[in-house]
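I am still learning, so would you mind making up any protein sequence you like and the tokens describing how it folds?
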Amino acid sequence: MIRARCDAASPGPWRAFLEEDGGLGGSSVIWMPDGDEVPDLYLWLDGRPAPGADFEFVARAREEIPRLLAALDPDNP
């Protein structure tokens, strides 16, 4: 199930631009490099932008979860 979700997600790498680091247009965002047709990804928590750590977690999970799955089952990368 986890592998299927990874395979179905937009391709990576995803990159977090955090408001506290200057953001991208002034707010935190996850950029997906699949051209102009794919919108940026914003995260909200209780009606406010999510903390920067949440953006980092989601963006990095796109690369790290497939690597974790490959390490757990090297015969099924």
In short: Residues 19 and 41 are 14 Å apart (CA to CA). The mean pLDDT is 86. Strands lie at 15-17, 29-31, 44-45, 48-49. The helical segments are 2-8, 52-72.
